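Narrative of activities, Objective 1.

The group set out to show that a structural description can be obtained from nothing but a protein's sequence at a throughput compatible with the screening campaign. Below is one input-output pair from the validation batch, recorded exactly as produced.
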Amino acid sequence: MRLLGLCLMLAAIGCSTDARKVNVSGKVTLDGNPLAEGQILFVSDQKDVPPEQGQIAQGTYTATLPAGPRTVQITAWRDSKKTNAVMGGAVKEQYIPAKFNEKSELKTTIPDQATFTADFTVTGK
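Output recorded for this entry:
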């Protein structure tokens, strides 16, 4: 009976879905200059793997995520010329083109290793 319990425990450990996380970092440039601030999102094609996000500051980012192929989405917001009559102040606008976020063409594959560097170049047009 003890042997059966041990076998079941080892089988459960072997089937664990906890993948080792990779420390990913890199640079993000917009029209050749470091992106001052924004967000970077790594989206897996696998529906059971949640997206992972990192903050972009002064053109650099860090994120921790499992290995595998990812679509990369980069977003950044700034004040627009529109104002919010109810809340007051400027309305924020997303100024990175859709081909780099909601309709992203950026792809990368995160290797199964401790660290990985991936740099991304986006254009404002």
